[in-house]
Amino acid sequence: GDSVTQMEGPVTLSEEAFLTINCTYTATGYPSLFWYVQYPGEGLQLLLKATKADDKGSNKGFEATYRKETTSFHLEKGSVQVSDSAVYFCALTGGFYGNNRLAFGKGNQVVVIP
Amino acid sequence: DTEVTQTPKHLVMGMTNKKSLKCEQHMGHRAMYWYKQKAKKPPELMFVYSYEKLSINESVPSRFSPECPNSSLLNLHLHALQPEDSALYLCASSQEEGIQGAESEAFFGQGTRLTVV
């Protein structure tokens, strides 16, 4: 079935640092890719999405590009703020064998220190 | 309106209690979902409703009973839960089940944090 792999472990960085969270996927067909963010004590919010190869999703200074050749959808932000501290989930839907479900990565907790 | 509203926000219940979680959306979405999320883990799919009919049940114990009274509402009835059922329960909706491309986005509610004592 479809699956998403995120880099292991929490990410701790200083304010104004550059953030990268790696996400790779396994899926056949033409999945749509998403990054969801979960702030402490809250539900999931869609951060950005891309629905076809070479699409770039962007929102709130975050960007991710749908790379079919490397099956990746890495999340980047040039200058993080304390308010970006949250858990970030990469997800996909729409692969041929995914049964139309959202497949989530394990998530990465991001902690931004002032 | 792009909101999915869940009530209550917090719930504490005993193992012999019966309670219900409620979810509402007014985006005209025809697919609605229940997820269970444990701390520091991704959400796990429990149930999918498509056009008000149960489409997917991920082998969830019968002490969880979903209901979709109409296209805007989704309930989750709880009975005789165990302490290990304590978790964040998330409701989500999307335009349709199985849709691909730009309309495949799922919208999540804020969740109900359930504690079973």
Please describe what this structure looks like.
The mean pLDDT of chain A is 92. In chain A, strands 2, 5, 6, 10, 11 and 12 form a six-stranded mixed sheet that branches. Chain A has 114 residues and is mostly beta strands. In chain A, 0% of the residues lie in helices and 54% in strands. Chain A has strands spanning 3-6, 11-14, 19-21, 23-26, 29-38, 44-50, 56-59, 62-65, 75-77, 86-95, 103-104, 108-113. In chain A, a hairpin with a 2-residue loop joins strand 7 (56-59) and strand 8. With 117 residues, chain B is mainly β. Helices cover 0% and strands 55% of the residues of chain B. Chain B is built from no helices and eleven strands. Chain B has strands at 4-7, 10-13, 18-25, 31-37, 44-50, 53-57, 64-70, 73-79, 87-94, 107-108, 112-116. In chain B, the strands form two sheets. In chain B, strands 2, 4, 5, 6, 9, 10 and 11 form a seven-stranded mixed sheet that branches. In chain B, a hairpin with a 2-residue loop joins strand 7 and strand 8 (73-79). Chain B is globular. The model of chain B has no long low-confidence stretch (mean pLDDT 92).
